[in-house]
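Protein modeling request. Please complete all fields; requests missing the sequence field cannot be processed.
Requester role: graduate student
Desired output: 3D structure, token encoding
Chains: 1
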Amino acid sequence: MTMALEGLKVIDCSQVAAVPMAARILGDFGADVIKIENPTTGDYWRSFKDAQLEAGYGWPSEFDFNFENFNRNKRSCTLDLTKENGRAIIHKMIKEADVFLSNLRTFELERFELEYETLDKMNPRLIWGNITGYGKEGPDKDLPAYDTTAFWARSGFPQLMSQPGVPVMGYRVAIGDNVAGMSLAFGVMQSLYLREKTGLGQRIDVSLFHTGFFQLGYDTSAALITGLDVADWRAPDPPMELQQQSLMAIMQIQAFYADRIKIRNPISGMYVTKDSRTLAFIILQPDRYWDRFCRAVGRPDLAENPKYQTMEGRSEDAAELRQIFTEIFMSKTYEEWRPLLKDIPYAPRQTIKEAVNDPQALASGCFVEYDHPTQGRIKQVANPVMMSKYPADVRMPAPEFGQHTEEVLLEYGYSWEDIARFKEEGTIA
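Delivered output (429 residues):
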């Protein structure tokens, strides 16, 4: 059976979830997807399912359903891109490829000689796609990020999924990654269509942060237009006594589950600051970040403790370590913590009003301004698929009801007499 993308060669130089999903979608339709993995560590996503199961959060299964879901219809090829001959090999592959996909940050792309400008010279027909946490521009463009931090917490989901006394309780794996992955796959397909016309590839950029605004389009567009926050229009909060009763019950239920779940990683999860800001830490590679985290919070002694050099040692004292960190985070405001945490995967939980005014959102192009015939200059969510040569644009506002009926019918050869008759018959408004 001939498949839609048969003959398309894709180099998938990514790991974890968002970009692997984009590449998997292309593979589902027949593309030959080569997944590049480090010969020593491989893709971290291979161990995620077991880590979740061991911590008491995961589905019991000997089969790695998670890795299968994100990486079917691919071939795995190991390459060490830190080595010169490793880079030479991937460059040879790219010269013959149609699509290159990655989730590498700017400094990593430069280190491995995989920037768009470099690969475009090697292969002008190449479609180059990248997903980042926060976009390719702005002060936070190189921050480490996961969908739980950039897509979920920082774009405003927790506020919009909760109410006073009924907080949002959790987040499911890769919800934002899947949306971003589908967006990147759409950008690739659009670029393939354009390449048929021009003979040239282009650059595609998608960010988890921007995709969060897109997914929350109803609320994001409302906040941009009104300038209001949820608390400004929502029904009055329930009595404080009722909120406290609800929160007390929720805390008891959480404690019930906590007794049955083995907390292994004390540097992942939620911590609250002195000014009551909730910070979401998602650190899926704790050995890599342990030393950095401890020094950021002013406890280098914990980083140097021999027992805590391994995940096993830290997991034995995870409850005690979490209590230590809980007290530490309560000692400073969020603004005081920000410069100290810049190299650690975390994000503040923001309200939707905070999110749409976030300097990173503004700098990375999450919003677009245009003139509306009745509202004047307005701001809305920009298309999250950013293309270098043929970018999206707002060519017209949403139409009034039936605004273009006559125009469209005239284009299709109907006369004004026909249009008058259609109106009289009730065929058109």
